[in-house]
Specification:
This protein is an all-alpha fold and about 260 residues long. It has twelve helices and no strands. The chain has two domains: about 210 residues, no CATH class; about 45 residues. Helix content is about 70%, strand content about 0%. α1 packs across α6 and α7 packs antiparallel against α9.
Length: about 260
Amino acid sequence: MKRLHPAKILVLGYLLYSIVGCLILSLPICHVGSIKLLDAYFTAISAVSTTGLATIDIGREYNFLGQAVILLLVQLGGIGYMTFSSFILLCTSQKLSAYRKKIGASSFAFPKDFSIQEFISSVIIFSFLCECLGAIALSLIFWQKGIEHWAWNGLFHSVSAFCTAGLSLFSDGFISFQTDIACNLVLAVLAILGSLGFIVSLDFYKKWTQENRSLSFTTQVILTVSGLFLTLGTFLFFGLETITDRSSLFREGMIGFFQV
């Protein structure tokens, strides 16, 4: 029997995960009131694709189980379900088949000096480390603010930020935190690390630990383009705002940077 092309496997996999996520989110045990099937499917698609859009207030409409399902979908969409499932196989001491390696290689590009097993393990460890540190930092911020369920909110928003999903359990998003420097900084660092990816971070680590090593051309291009977009985007948001008070200059600048 002829096997499907790896690209088709990836697309079908994400479609399957979104459908399963929709069915689970539509169950009564996952939400507080009544939720339409279309809203559940939109939420699942948004989570898997890390789009960050929602037609309902997920913090109020979904209970802890529903929010946990959304978080899992965000994680699978952000890291990649093939990466995640391959890591589980590696943890159980099972070897990856040639076909699975081919699918994994088609879902991301990795350095030539890396084996796919080493790359997958490194990506998962790097991602979880960033998310855990971010969760601790956000939890402390939320705890100081007296926010209910501060630990869960810290974990959820850390994963959401690192995967650049943009989903929030707060009804107003992070509007109430727009002047909180610590919160904005943590979320921005997580989003930047998640968007730049593991390879860029690895390149920085090797440059830091190895003498006479320069950043790769790919890393330099990524950093230059990302820095350019961040700078221009921040100034555009800042310039389009009507500022009547000098005391709000820093606030508007920080909001502009966060939006970018």
